[in-house]
Structure formats: structure tokens, C-alpha cells
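Thread: Modeling a multi-component assembly for a lab meeting

Hi all, long-time lurker, first post. My supervisor asked me to bring a structural picture of a complex we are working on to next week's group meeting, and I have zero experience with this. I have the sequence lines for every component (300 residues in total). Could someone generate the structure of the whole assembly? Inputs are pasted exactly as I received them:
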Amino acid sequence: FSTSPAVAGAIKHVTVIGGGLMGSGIAQVAAATGHNVVMVDQTDDILSKSKAAIQKSLGRVAKKKFADDGERQSSFVADVMGRIQLNTDPVDAAKSTDLVVEAIVENLDVKKKLFSALDEAAPQHTIFASNTSSLPIRDIAESTNRLDRFGGLHFFNPVPMMKLVEVVKIPETSNETFERLVQLGKAMGKTTVDCKDTPGFIVNRLLVPYMMEAVRMLERGDASARDIDTAMKLGAGYPMGPFELADYVGLDTTKFIIDGWSKKYPDVQIFQESPYVNKLVADGKLGKKTGEGFYKYDKK
Ligand code: 3HC
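Re: Modeling a multi-component assembly
Sure thing. I ran the full set together rather than chain by chain. Output:
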């Protein structure tokens, strides 16, 4: 699949809906690669927390980029932050943008309601994309009248470090839309892969069952979480073991994905839920972000 650099109308202005871990990461990388960005969330308070998280992450990037040059580090961070505007009104933000990337709560109805409202307000040329981890893009897109200008852009956590973007095509996505999304992924410094709208696309389809199999191994008492993590890091070269990764991604996210798939595909054994994960989530132990999941973390 060759990507022509001459596809009309490269995406310059990006609106990111959702200022959580993924949304703020996407906003950061889009701004750091020269795009004008509007980040949207429900309250000013949430947005100022997202902004602080971006500033902190940019500080880490700047330290690497301009080692020993504090002045250039500060001006890099200020320059990128200057390209990020904040807005609490998604419809207002959609009125003049080339692309909307949605990274809000994984709830189909909420996403559909959002896109339906945006569809009324956004210009004709605006492309809509969802960063959903596990919901079918087609189901979200049907809330709009722009199926040809709808696709998936699936990033990975932490967005500034992970080099991949999955670009997802629904049957109606036009070639031009798809090309523009691929081009944006590349312009954001990522490697892109083409995906059909199948559960979990490529990465989560393999990664989530792998993490769940590790949990089942623990539930059976075959090995400890620590030993399984050590084994996969040193024996298979993974940067994090499955339990470290599940805690990092968030056990609520992992559970959400597996709950959806187990309901939809009750006969697929590797998609089945786990009593252990269910209990951790019920106890509010969602991983690193709450200070405890499979492991305990120091709260900074
Ligand atoms: N922003 C900027 N820089 C960051 C960062 C962030 N949020 N997080 C880490 N870094 C940088 C650090 O500054 C550090 O830079 P340095 O090497 O120059 O000092 C570098 O990354 C390494 O960080 P650490 O030393 O703190 O830790 P690690 O060496 O363990 O690396 C990691 C951290 C990059 C997260 C690595 O452990 C990793 O790749 N883990 C696997 C992550 C993964 O699999 N993600 C995908 C999850 S699935 C998903 O997201 C899909 C969703 O739909 C659920």
C-alpha cells in the first residue's frame, strides 16, 4: 500500500476530545509535530490537569532532545504548549478543524451521542476518528452522515514513546480519508499499520488475550505474578511483564475490553473474563493510577 505524499489537504488542525491519558498524549504528540491542537474535556479543572501532565511529559522529551541546554528545553516546551488550546465545548471546537480524534470513555452510546452532535457542527472536509481500544469503529460511525470520512486512529500508551498507530478502515472509509489518516500518523512521527475493523485491531487482539492468559496462569497457581513478569521480560524480551503492563494500562480498561468481547463472543475461550481481575476492579484496585493493582505502587 503506497502512501502518496501528495494527497490533498494534509491535516494541520487537530481536535482531541478527551484529556485523559490517551487524549493528552495524542494532543501532545500532535502539537510537538507542528499541528495546531484543541484539547477538549468536560471541565476546566480536568483540562488543567491534562495540561500539567503534557507539560511534565514534554519536559522528559525535552531533556533528551536538548541535553544540557536548559534554555532550549524550556523554549521547546513553551513552543509546543503554545500550539495547544483548551475548550470545554466539543461542538464549538469541531466548527473549524481538519480532524476530530475522540478518546473519551469506552461507552458506545456516549461516543455516538458525541459524534452525532459533532457531525452537525463540523465542516464538510473534517475527518472523524476514534481511538477506541475495542469497540467497532463502524458502530460508532453510524451515528454520523460522514461514513466516508470516518476511521480509527488507535494510539498506544504512553503515546509519546510508543511508535505505532493503527489506522482502521471501515468499509465506507474513502481512500482519500484513509490516506490522510495514514499521512497524519506519519507526520506525528509514528509508524502506521493498516487494520480492518476487527475486535482489538492487531495489537489488542493479541495483547489482551495474552495478559488474560497470564492472569489465568496465576489463578491456577502455576507461577507467581513476579515470576511470570520476569519470565516474559527476560525470556521473551518484553519491556514489561503482563502484570506490570495490565497495571500500567489500567485494570478497568483491561476488564472493559474483555467484558465486551466475552459477551459478544461467548464461545471464544481466550476472551473469557477473570474472577481475579473482576475482584481487583470491584475493590478499586485499578493498577498504577490508583496505587494498587496486581502490585502496590508508591503514590507520588
Ligand atoms: N512521556 C515522555 N517520556 C516518557 C514517558 C512519557 N509519558 N514515559 C516514559 N518516557 C521515557 C522516559 O523519559 C525514558 O527516557 P530515557 O530512556 O531517555 O531516560 C524512557 O521513556 C524509558 O522510561 P523509564 O526508564 O521510566 O521506563 P522503561 O524503560 O520501562 O520504559 C516504557 C517505559 C516506554 C513505558 C516501556 O516500559 C514500554 O515500552 N512498556 C510497554 C508499553 C506498552 O506495551 N504499551 C502498550 C499498551 S496497550 C495500549 O496502550 C492500547 C490501549 O488500547 C489499551
